Amino acid sequence: MKDLIVLKDLTEIEIEAGSGLGSVKVTSPSISAMAETWAKLTPDNLSEVTFKNSAGEVSGTYTGLILSSETSTVAADGTVTTVYSLRQKTEMELLKEKLAAMEATLNTHDGAISDLGTATSALADQIGGAQ
Fold it and tell me: Is 30 helix (H, G, I), strand (E, B) or coil?
């Protein structure tokens, strides 16, 4: 059994021994297989990552990772060796995410307040017109 990186969605990707956060080495049987692996490295899947050694023991657990680079080499037999560089999000990136979430919540609240105002006006018009 090889070392593994386990993503948030529980996808297990076999990695070469000695891989670490800044240099996750993956050997894929083809370019399409490499592309499938790369597609799994989404921001959501990288929000919770566990590294396991070949014995299945957890060797590292990380949150808030980002894929900073990828380098691939295609061998004569068609196998692809890819080195993914992962890193922790910076404080600025984390603050931007929090700000974006707050803005989304504020927009939702603004919409609800507007809807409430419209309903209140309509109700007031009905009550006022009934007199």
Answer: coil
pLDDT tens series, the chain, 131 aa? 799 999 999 999 999 998 989 999 999 999 999 999 999 999 999 999 999 999 999 999 999 999 999 999 999 999 999 999 999 998 898 888 888 888 888 888 777 787 777 878 877 778 876 55
Helix (H/G/I), strand (E/B), else coil: 78: coil
32 DSSP assignment: H
Q: Tell me if residue 131 falls in helix, strand or coil.
A: coil
Q: How many helices (H) and strands (E) does the chain have?
A: 2, 7
For residues 92 and 78, what is the distance between their CA atoms, to the nearest angstrom? 40
Token pair for 67: 């894929």
Rounded to whole angstroms, the Cα distance separating 68 from 78 reads 25
